[in-house]
Design a protein that fits this description.
single chain; 219 residues; mainly alpha; Hypothetical Protein Ta1238, Chain: A; 6 helices; 56% helix
């Protein structure tokens, strides 16, 4: 088990930090930026869990909302595992591939394939997409959209130094962004929430100015 008794060391006061192999690099180093983005995705998934937990699982009359409890259960099981996997990924990305310690447990193909297995299970309940989905929705759904976009940013950053990491790590992150997207759609569907769809320019409304003026006229 890890035992940390002191967090502040002062070793980073000059703008440098240590990789897992002990080498010192600037905190602006590309690899450190990647590790930080991986941590950002993890934190956003924590917000998704928080927003999921806030969903009321009882009706105003006191009856149980079974669907909400099931959504909470699936999100909890799936995302809590993901957070540990992202921590493992961040540790691996914090060192060159030829300097990975023997004791470090790495993500493997089964972890990456599990993402596809779960996506397939969720997709069984979903209708095919007929338009692009805009990022919006109630708490956990909007938070998932944000987590998905940051995961794509993580992937873009990793591609820049993909020759300095295991190919599996890039495969995993590519699948992860799709995983978050499909989970977002599944949660929306289970909760009965309408997805916000992209509207072609010719079918969009006249804008908020006219609406505001009509409201003022009717005050």
């Amino acid at each position: 088990m890890v035992r940390i008794t002191k967090v502040h060391t002062g070793a980073g006061d000059s703008g440098e930090t240590s990789l897992v192999d002990g080498s010192r690099v600037a905190k602006s180093d590309r690899r450190i930026e990647i590790v930080g983005t991986c941590d950002e995705v993890n934190a956003l998934l924590g917000i998704v869990l928080m927003e999921s937990a806030r969903l009321p699982d009882t009706h105003p009359d006191g009856g149980e909302r079974v669907t909400v409890r099931r959504v909470k259960s699936v999100c909890s099981v799936a995302i809590e595992r993901l957070q540990s996997e992202l921590f493992d990924l961040g540790a691996e990305l914090a060192c060159p591939p030829d300097q990975i310690p023997e004791f470090m447990e790495l993500l493997d193909q089964s972890d990456s394939d599990r993402l596809c297995e779960e996506m397939d299970a969720w997709n069984e309940e979903l209708q095919p997409l007929e338009s692009f989905i805009l990022p919006s929705g109630i708490g956990p759904i909007a938070s998932m959209h944000l987590a998905r976009t940051v995961t794509r940013r993580l992937e873009r950053s990793m591609v820049a130094i993909k020759d300095q990491m295991r190919p599996l790590t890039l495969q995993y992150v590519n699948r992860l962004s799709d995983w978050i997207f499909v989970l977002t759609r599944w949660v929306s569907n289970r909760l009965g929430e309408d997805e916000s769809l992209w509207v072609p320019k010719g079918k969009r409304g006249s804008g908020a100015a006219d609406l505001t003026r009509r409201q003022n006229a009717n005050r």
